[in-house]
Amino acid sequence: MYAAERHQLLAQRARRDGRVDVGDVAAELGVAPETIRRDLGVLERQGVVRRVYGGAVAVERLDFEPEVAQRDQTNAAEKDAIARAALDLVPDRGSILLDAGTTTSRLATLLPADRELTVITNSIPVASILATRPGITLHILGGRVRGTTLAAVEAWTLHALDGLLVDVAFLGANGFSAEHGCTTPDMAESAVKAAVVAAARKRVLLADHSKYGTDQLSRFARLAEIDVLVTDSGIDAGAVAELEEAGPEVVLA
Fold first, then answer.
1. pLDDT tens digits for range 207-233
2. Directed axis angle between helix 3-17 and helix 33-45, to 10°?
3. Exposed site from 45, 76, 146, 203, fewest CB < 10 Å?
4. What is the pTM of this model?
């Protein structure tokens, strides 16, 4: 396959899937990973993709947020494993804050009925999961609900968070990296996530490996502000060392 043909294939793959993985494409085409990296460098200079750890993402997809149902199906097994690992960080009693996200929703389904927990959330799906759960005292934060993520945002949400101090906050993110911290495409949602970080004694980020290096528009926390990162074993060992050096304990599910 000629270089121009590879470039076209990589551009199409990035636009279709949102991301290109160097190792997967190199194996598929029977070329060295360095060849694919050079190809992605060409496409980056053309403004087609932005290179990230392990591959590249389509430029037009950087600020794109899939709907909840679509995100819930992406890396579902990894998200399930992360939620199970995060359960060990839930206190026997006390208060927790569950941020909006498909992985935090999975954690909500796993919360045991034999613990006395006060749960605060800005997520409609999380609230619906926990509304009738025994042992749970549920508080839902008000605000404008974003249709994309079903999360409450803006002034009402921020005002409520300003008066809180919870034991543990579990957060989601669209991207994370040692250099740029925890990021999300929407600034209103980013402001709420930052307020969640400020309202918690302990902060736990739940994010699967595909989000590593996929930095988004708005940062809501530096990694030094995160106590524990729970991700899956698909993340590279070198990335784990880099992330731990930036601050958080890294737990591999």
1. 999 889 888 889 999 999 999 999 999
2. 70
3. 45
4. 0.77
